[in-house]
Amino acid sequence: MSxxxxxxxxxxxxxxxxxxxxxxxxxLKAVYVAMDAEHKxxxxxxxxxxxxxxxxxxxxxxxxxxxxxxxxxxxxIAGVLKEEE
Length: 85
Description:
By secondary structure, this protein is α+β, with helices and mostly antiparallel strands. The chain has helices at residues 3-8, 16-24, 39-52, 62-68; strands spanning 12-14, 28-34, 56-59, 77-81.
């Protein structure tokens, strides 16, 4: 799993709120987490991700993750949504 997959994904979540909601609704197929994000923000989500058995791609910085999502600011977490059925 690489950042390129996130960049070309047609459907994705950006940020904690969007990603958490999609995670709770079992809509994600992969998650990207910035290593420099605050652990109090990412830790609860990472625990849920691990319980659901989803792959996690660790990204060096929030800025790099945000850039991969097409935004000019950093983000702690992002996800690739499953294809619509």
